[in-house]
Amino acid sequence: MKQFYMDSNVYISGLKPDDPFHSDSKAIVRALERDEIRAETSVLTILEVASVSGRVYAAKKGMKSEKERKVFIVRSLRRLAGLKTKFINISGDTHLSIRGIEATLPSVFNEAVLLSLRSRLKTLDLIHLAAAKHAKQVNAELNALVTGDKDFLSNKKELSEIVKMPVFSPREYVDGLGIES
Amino acid sequence: MEVLNVKVEKETKEKIERLVKARGYKNKSEALRTMIEEHFEEHPELFAEEEMEELLREAGRISDADFDELAARIFRGRKTAEELVREERERA
Contact at 8 Å (CB) between A160 and A73? Predict the structure, then answer.
């Protein structure tokens, strides 16, 4: 069974009919529901999905429906969990020692610091990249990082070398799977 | 108002009495009432589990199909999914 690392924007795109990647992301969601493929993602995705869902709901409906906004966030997370997504957490702490800087930091941050030397991605992008790299090390069956992120897609070659698997847009991944979008 | 009968150590009672004088409360009852309310306001996480249970119950009443329909209405807009997530990453 094909397994891939899913970026948060792929899940959101599957819920957003006017998104450029919607039909492909929706095809990915349907394949996940049918258990034809499996997804892994960073625990950061839980936070991003909650935050984007809550923010967009508030912008659409206003603050008068605070309870409904919270229900929407929780339901959005349940929908994500229903896709049997595995959430990656690089657990534990790591000691960082760089001439004068002595710090104990969560291992995911340490990995992101090391990746910042190889990539120009922003902080939270680096955490996703660290999670994807870790996921691939733990699960050799993982064969793609799927994202709609412009920075990731414009640095495919460099990022593929870091995570040791190809970086695809939802469209490219769906084309590769041979499923209909 | 409801009445609570609470047993406390002598030392605690004396501390409350000192606070009544220092902060100008009318009596021990008002001092304790204010402190309990302040504590609840400062620590909403005390009730987070209870609230989450309620939200999960409410969310459980919405089917996947109904949620997808609602989400389609909520997420519809000029920004792409990528832009919405990117905004979160840039705000952090």
Answer: no
